């Protein structure tokens, strides 16, 4: 992606922050968030990102321009309580307001989640698999909220004739993410939850692949919106990547086997590969780089 004017939402988050820093080198990047983390705002601005403080729930965008080549919508309000009213307001309605404001963009990329799928044990999930509430054990409103957001995005794409793509992201990682949290838990002797229907398998995708692949999805944006799984093609269990972290660090993990945690979520990325190509960072490469960056490699 080069010489584009893009807007990124949720830019202080795990995925959007490095995405913005990566693409500002060759593009005019604007970013909106509440920016409770002022250090991240300073880092983005130092890199050349045009930052604006915006609460998506308000629908007030100040002097933010509208003539974007693309909008990358990564923002998500994480609701800790069982508050569906807040979930729908902060995520679904807020996304509708954003798409209304950005209706003149050339393309809209919505980052959804594989958390919208009904749990099916260790079977593969495709874009036509049944939807359900697979995140309730950890975030009680998350899956239902994300499904609602997708419905809003689909409506707005047609209402505003805004070419749109919905990418259902499976487990992202890099310098942060779930494997990194497990590394920290190992360092502090904290139990790592794994599902009783083991092994707890997910389809990891490294931040470098997200940075590279997300812009390619813009060519797939359409009216009505097109839906893709966004993941690697390697299905890896928590048990496997934690064992690999143990081998790299010399640390020892403690597992807590429970039914009160996320079940496996394995996604098929065949449709993605056919449209834009596969992920290329292997999970071992990615986790080794993560451990090395964290200064945790054993000597």
Structure overview:
This protein has 299 residues and is of the alpha/beta class. It has one domain (5-293): NAD(P)-binding Rossmann-like Domain (Rossmann fold). The protein has nine helices and 15 strands. A seven-stranded parallel sheet has the order 3-2-1-4-5-7-12, sandwiched between helices. It has a two-stranded parallel ribbon with strand order 6-15. The protein starts with a strand and ends in a 6-residue tail after the last helix. The mean pLDDT is 96.
Brief summary of the model shown:
The protein has 299 residues and is α/β, with parallel strands linked by helices. The chain has nine helices and 15 strands. It has a single domain, classed as Rossmann fold, CATH 3.40.50.
Give the % helix. 25-40%
Strand order of the largest sheet: 3-2-1-4-5-7-12
Inertia-based shape: globular
Low-confidence stretches: none
CATH homologous superfamily grouping: NAD(P)-binding Rossmann-like Domain
Helix/strand/pairing class, anyone? alpha/beta
* Helix and strand run: EHEHEEHEEHEEHEEEHEEHEEHH
DSSP strand (E) fraction? 15-25%
How many beta-strand runs? 15
What fold name stands as the CATH topology? Rossmann fold
Assigned CATH architecture: 3-Layer(aba) Sandwich
**C-alpha Rg (nearest Å):** 19 Å
Major beta sheet summary: 7 strands, parallel
> Can you count the helices?
9
The CATH class designation is Alpha Beta
Chain-averaged pLDDT:
96
What is the domain tally?
A: 1
